[in-house]
Amino acid sequence: MAMPSEGFDANQLIVIAIGDPAGIGMEVTLKALASPSLPSKLHPQLVGCRKSLELTYAQLQAQGISPLANPKNLDIKDLPLKSTLKPGYPTAQSGAASFLWLTKATELLLKGRARALVTAPIAKHAWHAAGHHYPGQTERLKELVGADQASMLFTAISPQNGWRLNTLLATTHIPLAAVPKVLTPELVRAKLNVLKAFCQRFKTDPSIAVAGLNPHAGEQGQLGHEELKWLIPMLNKWKTEHPEIQLDGPLPPDTCWLSAAKAWHGNPCAQTPDGILALYHDQGLIPMKLLAFDSAVNTTLGLPFLRTSPDHGTAFDIAGKGCARADSMLAALKAAWELTESR
Ligand SMILES: NC(=O)c1ccc[n+]([C@@H]2O[C@H](COP(=O)([O-])OP(=O)(O)OC[C@H]3O[C@@H](n4cnc5c(N)ncnc54)[C@H](O)[C@@H]3O)[C@@H](O)[C@H]2O)c1
Ligand SMILES: N[C@H](C(=O)O)[C@H](O)COP(=O)(O)O
Predict the structure, then answer these.
(1) CATH number belonging to the domain at 1-147+304-343, selected among 3.90.1640.30, 3.30.70.20, 3.50.30.60, 3.40.718.10
(2) Whether the predicted pLDDT of 4 surpasses 60
(3) Which of 82, 94, 100, 301 lies most in the core, judged by the most C-beta atoms within 10 Å?
(4) Closest atom of ligand 2 to CA, residue 172
(5) How do strand 306-310 and strand 297-301 relate by DSSP bridges?
(6) Distance, CA of 167 to CA of 210 (rounded, Å)
C-alpha cells in the first residue's frame, strides 16, 4: 500500500471518513483494509485521528486479532481528537469529530482528488449533541455538495450465487407519521428513475418492484387510500413511459421481497425484481438487513461522486470488544471501487 496521497493518481484513491470514534468504525476499517480481496491498486486515504487509530490497532492486536492494517503504513489526514474516548460511549466530542471528518473528506472529493468516498458509521444523536442537526450522513452530504436530491440505495451481492439485491428508499430519515405526507407522485417518480438508472448499470431491461404503503397494498382502498388515489395511476403512467422496464406494483409490502429472498439464497427466477423501491426506511431495510446484513452497502446516489457505507451502525454495544465483523465495510470499499469503474 503506497503512501502518502500527494501526487497520487486520484482515480486510485478512496477517501474514508472513519466515523464515530466511540463506535466500531475504526475497528472495521482496520480489519477491512487488511483484506487481500481488495483491489490491489486501491489507495485508501483515511480522514480522522491518527492517535485513535493507533490505539485501536494496539487494542485489537492485544486481543490477538489479525489481519489488521497498521495505521503506521496508512495514508491518514490527521485531524486529532482533543482527548481519547471510551469505546461505546458517544459524546458531543465524538459527534463533533465524526461530523468534521465527514466534512473534510467530502472536501477532498469535491476538489476532484479522489475516486469515491466511503464512510464508517456515525451516530446521529452524537451529531445532535454536538449541535449538528442532520438526520444522517446522506442529508449532510446532499447539503455539502448542493445536490437537489440524494438517494439512499442499498445494494448487496449474494455470497451464494453473485446475484445482486438492490433496494432504494423513497423516503429516509423521517418519522413514520411523516411518511404519507412526504410521499408524492413526483417523489416516487424521481426515485424510480434513480433506481432504474442504477439497475441498468447491470442489465438493459431490468425489472422493478414497488412496495405499497399500506397493508396488502391498501386492499383496494379498504386498508388505506394512497395506492388507489395516486400511487397506481402514477405507476401506470411511468410504465407507459418506460416500456423497456417490467414494473410491478404496488405489491403487498409483506411479500414484496419474497422472490428476492429466494434469489438471494440461490434460486433467482424470471420474476425476481432487479430493484425494489421501498416507500420508507424500515420497510426496505428490515428485509435488506435480515437477508444481507454482512454484505449490504449503503450508497448515496445523486452526488457528484459515489459515497458508500456499511449497512450497520456504530454498534456501541460491542465497540472495543474486537468482535465487530468487517464484511459490510469491506463490501462498501469494494463497491466504491467497482461501481466507479468505467464501463
Ligand atoms: N452507516 C451509518 O452511518 C449508520 C448506519 C446505521 C445506523 N447508524 C447509527 O448507528 C447508531 C446505532 O444504530 P443501531 O443500534 O440502530 O444499529 P447498529 O447497526 O449499530 O447495531 C444493531 C445491532 O447489530 C450489531 N452490529 C452492528 N454492526 C455489527 C458488526 N459490524 N459486527 C457485528 N455486529 C454488529 C450491534 O452490535 C447491534 O446489536 C445510531 O445512532 C444509528 O443512527 C449509522
Ligand atoms: N439509514 C441507514 C441505515 O439504517 O443503515 C443509516 O442510518 C445511515 O444513514 P446515513 O448514511 O445517511 O448516515
Answers:
(1) 3.40.718.10
(2) no
(3) 94
(4) 1
(5) antiparallel
(6) 10
